[in-house]
Amino acid sequence: MYDSIIIGCGFAGAVLARELAEKGNQKVLIIEQRDHIGGNAYDVLDVHGILIHQYGPHIFHTNSQKVFEYLSRFTKWYDYSHEVVGNVYGKIIPVPFNLNTLNLVYGEEKGNILKDKLVTTYGMESRVPILELKNNKDPDIKAIADYVYENIFLKYTMKQWGQTPEEIDPSVTSRVPVLISYDNRYFQDKYQGMPLDGYTVLFENLLDHENITVKLDTKVNNIADIPEAKNIIYTGPIDELFDCKYGRLPYRSLNFVFENYKEESYQSHAVVNYTVTEDYTRITEFKKLTDQHSDSTTIVKEYPIPYTGADGEIPYYSIINEENLALYEKYKELLKDKNIHLLGRLAEYKYYNMDAITLKALELADELLK
Ligand code: FAD
Ligand code: UDP
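^ thats the input. predicted complex w/ uridine-5'-diphosphate below
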């Protein structure tokens, strides 16, 4: 009855479904375990009338014109540039650490001398991963690196991953490099913004096609649950297809604690990272992401927790290391002769942003429709 069956209705599943339905004129069924579409990008009005992101703050950013133009078919954008500050023992500083942060920490006079040294060494507008900066032998640069490491990375990373920055994959801390620039934005991508009517509406528009059927509240428990079809695409965790028979793939999870305050504004920026104190990593104030107006405000605190696979726990971040990638490959071997494509941050065990997975979904659609 269906040409393609897709398990999971996040960006991976929804973009792929649209492409197969529209370009390939295929009948597509999406099976989703949750009671809503959108995967982790899902947003919804809370009881106070504030649009919140149920699974943590999602800010769209990309350098891919293709992805931006594609998604722009399904949403208009609120022109939002994301700026984050760190709370360092009560002192508020721009994060990523940049030349403005340098001046705040060292004062303008010393900051300008240090700036010249950084610019001569790395070049203006360069992005230097903290672990690379830490290797610099120059005593001044080493002192800056030590400050950034101690006050921005070490404790936040310990909270988030339960490991030090050296112990986790370097690609993770490189996401937030030291910026030799006066740009206070968290992302330097060419296109950034928030879907004007929210992510859920973007997904409703993506899925609004006569060839697409979405079945919610339906979990695929293992590989035997997947119905037959010409194309099968799985966007969930690969180990669960095989009852985790080699052991669970490790993930980090988060406990989101939402609070509402009867005041117009809670904090200076949409996101404040608590880089040294508190058990949570960051506080997001949703109104400020999307310019909402209301006499109350909703925030969320993110408490990182290990993922055990218990009911209700969500695997958010794959833990990239050699051992876990080897385990992932072992599961992938089991699919060798099967007609099942893996797509998405869970199924591919990758740390994908929304734009990257949108691009992967467009590419897989092209391949399947060849
Ligand atoms: P998901 O969104 O996780 O969707 C997978 C879907 O499959 C889910 O709905 C799940 O319920 C369903 N599913 C899984 N297994 C089964 C099964 N067995 N049966 C039925 N259904 C199943 N990216 C950005 O670009 N910008 C950001 O600011 C950003 N912030 C983030 C903040 C947090 C806290 C997190 C965790 C991620 C963030 N991301 C951000 C990443 C973004 O969430 C992902 O890129 C995106 O969600 C990936 O889409 P996906 O479809 O691969 O996965
Ligand atoms: N990080 C940090 N301090 C910060 C921001 C980020 O130590 O203030 C590190 C931390 O290890 C984190 C990683 O950089 O997991 C990537 O940060 P990002 O903000 O990209 O994480 P995400 O939004 O994906 O949770």
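The longest strand covers residues 251-261.
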